[in-house]
Amino acid sequence: MKRIFVKFTFLFVCVSFINTLQADEKVYKLSMATTWTETTSPLFDAAKNMAKIANTMSNGRLDIKIDAANKHKSPFGVLDMVKGGQYDMAHSTSYYWKGKDINTLPFTSMPFGLTSPEQYAWFYYGGGMELMQKVYEKHGVLSFPGGSTGVQMGGWFRKEINSLDDLKGLKMRIPGFAGEIMAKLGVQVTNNAPGELYTSLERNTIDALEWVGPSMDISMGFHKIAPYYYTGWHEPASEMQFIINTKKFEKLPNDLKEILVVAMRISAYDMYIQNYDMNASAWQKMKTEYPNIKVKTFPKPVMDAMKKANLELRTEMSKDNPLLKEVLDSQDAYMKKVREWTKMSDFLYLKDNLE
């Protein structure tokens, strides 16, 4: 009897071990929608790289299929599609959802706010991730940093901006919160579709526009028409995002959850440094082929007016949105702490070593 029991015990252990191996070999298929087309580099690259890293690290157990915007036809509907289960994941950016939920706005970037290294530090060590999950939990998704374009340029202008009067009546494509600030200063703000921007600028339908930076501006050709290229103020740390359906994520084995999170984090940072290199290369080409481009900074009275409008709008938005105020206050407190080090390190180093 004892021998039979031992045999059955051994058989049970073997079957359990085989089942474990089979479970470990199960392939989990996930679908991901992006806001970008496949040619939108480096944004689409971040999604593609994440899927590849997750697949490699999991030895093929995570298989993520990506649909670009031209496939699913709803670039600004990916949050709803993930929430509703049409897709398991998405790659987009958080401030696109401000019309649906104003609390999502600060997780991309805020005017005169944190730089990309500062914002990454806030996300991972300053409470930013916890606040982001607090905002997104009611949408049934988890949100993770998805890659930064760094400081975005302030835009291409046909004419030089010397005073606030030069902004009044100016027709400019500049979306989001920055657009509201510009509108407050008298700019006629539009939000033309990307495919219409060059034609709109060429035909004088608009006088100026903001896009991203040299890495993505060069292919659009704005520098061929508008020679004044203004430095940034409105998006100092433009962060993309990965979102994943919470229920779908919770069904993954613990090791695959960890692999997915690590893959998102690695691909996000890789996009940041890829874009940095692309900006440097694109600017070298731009300034060589179009030496008439003039890099400008907005005059101090204009910048002061932008900062004032920014504070007024933030106060107004936060009045009836305690969660938004909590997020903005957290960013402000972290910036107060981290900016002192940024000045001591990066700023003074650059200031003392610029040619």
From TrEMBL:
In this chain, Na(+) is annotated as bound at: W211
Q: Which Gene3D superfamilies match?
A: Bacterial extracellular solute-binding protein, family 7 (3.40.190.170), Periplasmic binding protein-like II (3.40.190.10)
Q: Which Pfam families match?
A: DctP
Q: Which residues bind substrate?
A: Q152, R173, E210, E235
For this entry, list what GO says about its biological process.
Answer: transmembrane transport
A molecular function (GO) term = metal ion binding
First and last residue of the signal peptide: 1-23
Which key words are in the record? Metal-binding, Signal
Query: Does this UniProt record's set of keywords contain Signal?
Result: yes
For this protein, the record's InterPro entries field holds: DctP_fam (IPR018389), SBP_TakP-like (IPR026289), TRAP_DctP_sf (IPR038404)
Top-level taxon: Bacteria
Where is it found, in Gene Ontology cellular component terms? tripartite ATP-independent periplasmic transporter complex
NCBIfam families, alphabetized? TRAP_S1
How is this protein named in the record? ABC transporter substrate-binding protein
Species classification: Bacteria, Pseudomonadati, Campylobacterota, Epsilonproteobacteria, Campylobacterales
